[in-house]
Design a protein that fits this description.
The chain has three helices and three strands; from the N terminus they run αβββαα. The protein is an alpha+beta fold and 96 residues long. It comes from Kibdelosporangium phytohabitans.
Length: 96
Amino acid sequence: MWAKAPVADVSAQTTADRRGFLGDGLRPVECTACGTCVLVKKSSEHHTSIQWQTSTDSCPEYAAQNKPSALLDTCSKLRASIESLVADGLLEVPDG
């Protein structure tokens, strides 16, 4: 017979899942071009999570655009900084 989990158990697990997804594995990475520091997590070779801790105005590449930063892909110089850390083995990419 199947029974629902108690609401308190589901709520606690949902909070833990959210915290893990949004925060676990993030590490600070500084752009080698402008010095902007972001939090980065590699979930796979092709998936990179980036959380900006400051306004994207601190990035010259974003600042030069005439549209909201949410509509832009990652700054090419920041992407190169991240890829360099991965290539040097300083930013871990999980197996898979």
